Amino acid sequence: MSIVTGEQGTLMIRTAATLASILAISTVTHACNVPVFRYALERWRPDAYDAIVFHDGRLSPADSTLVQRMADASAEPVHANLRTNLANVNDSLPRWVRSVWTA
Q: Number of structural domains, the chain?
């Protein structure tokens, strides 16, 4: 059995003292009982997806009905996370809509 002396011995003593100090002052912590995903599902409203309906001129009655149904889905009681946007390609389009149209 050899005894460690010098710098190596000092380093080992410091390391042992540091570990002993950490163990002595550490306390047991308890996690909360509510999982984070459950909290998020119950309290955070999801971001809305943008649905862009591109059309050339006027919409037909059948297409207007479908667009209206999409818009109604984001209202109560369904509350889908969908935002319906109409974009007539003959009119000037906002920059963000134009970037989707030309992609």
A: 1
CB 58 within 8 A of CB 88: no
Give the domain range for residue 32. Answer: 7-102
In a domain, 2, yes or no: no
Residue 84: how many CB atoms within 10 A of its CB? 19
pTM: 0.56
What pLDDT digit, counting tens, does each position of 23-53 carry?
A: 777 766 677 777 888 888 888 878 889 999 9
The pLDDT of residue 4 is: 61
Q: Is 62 within a domain?
A: yes
For 82-92, write each residue's pLDDT tens digit: 999 999 999 99
Question: In which element (H, E) is residue 88 found?
Answer: strand 82-88
| Distance of alpha carbon 58 from alpha carbon 77, whole angstroms | 30
Spatial contact of 102 and 96, defined as CB atoms under 8 Å apart: no
